[in-house]
Amino acid sequence: MLSCRFDAIDVLGKAEIDHEKCTLCRRCIHYCPLSALVVE
Length: 40
Fold this sequence. Notes:
- By secondary structure, the protein is of the alpha+beta class.
- Helix content is about 15%, strand content about 15%.
- It starts with a strand and ends with a strand.
């Protein structure tokens, strides 16, 4: 499963990410400036 290792970073430019509802769409992966997504 994919997840973001930086809880405080919103790769979509919003105030915060709701990690419970985040489905990590391809847009999220594409726009992540830190390549923070990792496989769990």
